[in-house]
């Protein structure tokens, strides 16, 4: 159910818009702000919006690298610290919270995040996570100084969230709308074949995404099955002890029949025991969706702990995660730094090392918010709302600007100058019609989904139950969400308005 929207988005959005952004950057030889200003002075706000989105992304994204460092440092222990539950203070049993959930979830929510029960209980900065975040930003800064050489079911089709998720996956994985592609492409040779690169990068990106999803769902299926079987075994053991049944008389196959029998023959005893009997369901385990950071740190660590030589695979996995994370951060920071270094006012007064250092330092200080006890809730707010709607608007304006303001024929001539041939009918149809219409449809889907959802909610960790519970966002969190969306999207009309006023004043 997800792959159909994904491939439609890849063909209609991903490849055409990747090609468009690479071509714009390569032709204009500027970062996002300068490139769109050349196309039209009224479009200066598009580049500013891209920089703001990249800044928001950099603020919270490097926290993932901080968590990866945390897990990497703990990967050298034997046994792995998330392999078993820790003993309680009396050393007579395991921690209650861990027994109610799993060792991997306990390590993530309690020992890594030390998460608070709600967004309102902000708590203190966790110094271990703050040090890991500082290390992550130091690595990013050193990489910048050195420079970079490379860097379900079918009814889901009617669900707007599926299409929005598919578009978000394409936009984030290819880096569309952030300005990083334009920034990197501005350093290309003027005759570089950006069309070929757009096709190759899109296909390799999607192939690796699908390969990763196969591995991910295999691990997730294993985790669900393991939890389901553990639940069944606990219920069987409880019934055997409570009713003094023979060993082997209760199995997973006859459990439901035996429960009905015991309920009928021993109603009082069964009623007393009933609150302790969990309703084990494989469907429920599979439907307990884990995504984002939970997927990377809970599900994979669950699989790693059951492997032979788990320390080796743990180190390999979290080093890989760091390589991906640092690579993404270099793209994000390039989208911020390139427009700044393009500015004569800034570039003539400060060397690149100072500009890079200031950007990294500001992001690191603001990022300390995400290392607080409620930091993971703020992380989810930024992850869900800082970029999604903004990217849709940015990419829509970019497409319309190239096709109808700069002109598709003029753009064709630029491409002929760069790569020696004009774009074929596929690219032109996608740029001029299909991509803009699809993005407008996604806008409608997004707003419809927002209206139907009503009050925005988030998943909070309940330590007493050992599971996530749904809560409404407080009013100040809703205000922050509004500011995150408005801060970038409003740059586009404001940029055009400021340019119009300046031109009007000049004439007068």
Automatic annotation (TrEMBL):
Residues annotated as binding Na(+) are 173, 205, 324, 328
Any one biological process term the GO annotation gives: L-proline import across plasma membrane
Q: Name one GO cellular component term.
A: apical plasma membrane
**One Pfam match:** SNF
- Report which superkingdom the organism of origin falls in: Eukaryota
Membrane topology qualifier? Multi-pass membrane protein
Q: Which InterPro entries match?
A: Na/ntran_symport, SNS_sf
The residue ranges crossing the membrane are 6-24, 36-61, 163-187, 199-220, 315-337, 358-379, 385-408, 429-448, 476-501
- Leader sequence range is none
Show the PROSITE patterns listed in the entry. NA_NEUROTRAN_SYMP_2, NA_NEUROTRAN_SYMP_3
Grouped into one coarse class, the protein's main location is membrane
Does Transport appear among the keywords?
Answer: yes
Keyword Cell wall biogenesis/degradation in the entry? The reply is: no
**Which keywords fit this entry according to its UniProt record?**
Membrane, Metal-binding, Sodium, Transmembrane, Transmembrane helix, Transport
**GO MF annotations, alphabetized:** L-proline transmembrane transporter activity; metal ion binding; proline:sodium symporter activity
Cellular localisation: Membrane
**What name appears for this protein in its UniProt entry?**
Solute carrier family 6 member 20
Organism of this sequence: Aquila chrysaetos chrysaetos
What gene name does this entry carry?
SLC6A20
